Automatic annotation (TrEMBL):
Keyword Transmembrane on entry: yes
Family of this protein: Belongs to the multi antimicrobial extrusion (MATE) (TC 2.A.66.1) family.
UniProt keyword annotation of Nucleotide-binding present: no
Domain of life: Eukaryota
Name under which the protein is recorded: Protein DETOXIFICATION 27-like
GO cellular component, one term: membrane
Keywords from the UniProt entry: Membrane, Transmembrane, Transmembrane helix
Single GO molecular function: xenobiotic transmembrane transporter activity
Residues spanning the membrane: 47-72, 84-108, 129-150, 162-183, 195-217, 223-246
Classification via InterPro entries: MATE_fam (IPR002528)
Amino acid sequence: MPNSSAIEESKVPLLDDLCSTIQSNNNEDGHDCHDLVQRVWFESKKLWHIVGPAIFFRATNFSMILITQIFAGHLGDLELAAISLAYNVIIGFDFGLLLGMASALETLCGQAFGAQKHYMLGVYLQRSWIILFLCCVLILPLFLYTSPILKFMGQPSNVADLTGVVAMWVIPLHFCLGFLFPLQRFLQCQLKTGVIAWVSLVVLVVHVIISWLFVYVFKLGVIGTAATLSFSWWLLGLGLLFYTLFGGCPLTWNGFSIEAFSGLWEFTKLSAASGVMICLENWYYRILILITGSLNNAEIDLDALSIWSATVYCI
């Protein structure tokens, strides 16, 4: 039989091999963990490069509405109630429908961009403009007959009448939404979110200045307050259009094309389905504002609820 010293000597290389294997596995696990952290950090930076400017764009949009309501509050309770009802209910209805219809552009543009058919992004953009413009024309009576519609829904007469005046002055904003939303989706699908964010920042600063001039310098009252938002949103849309037309999208924008008038029915069905989906998500709290207008102290209640909802959406 082998002696004990020989047995002990034979165990040494086995223990050394085991220790080396364990240490090697630990090093590999540490290396994998380090690689995982690096991959998560890299993907997070790529994600925030896209969603960060997009979040900022939405925040500036709602900030302009909130700033407009703040300036309207300096005019009086009735003016603030009218502005709030027009923006949160009338424009809110419009906003949800047109935003949803424009969202169909994301699917088509993403597919075309991935398939290397870059010129089709410009064609899809023009088709979306055509369809949303026609939709804006169909919705136009909502703005023209805002006052009788609100009275039929039980809103106070003085609030409904002034809201009808405001609705007439935000008709340019109504058509701007049908122009701006597809353009924003068109640029976002090409990861040009930084341009959208910078233009939004400039327009937000201009909006504050214009609102101050219209309310405190020119003394235009509720009409001037309503006009500022239409002006600012069109400034935002024209800024993005200027970037698109003058070299910002050389691969995807090849000018206006007659091809945009083909395939409109299929595009309309896709846009309508997307519009209904977004509307159902966007309209539920608008109903609360309409119900609030039926309370005894409607002006103050409308002011409080609309400012709260605008602040929450802005945040």
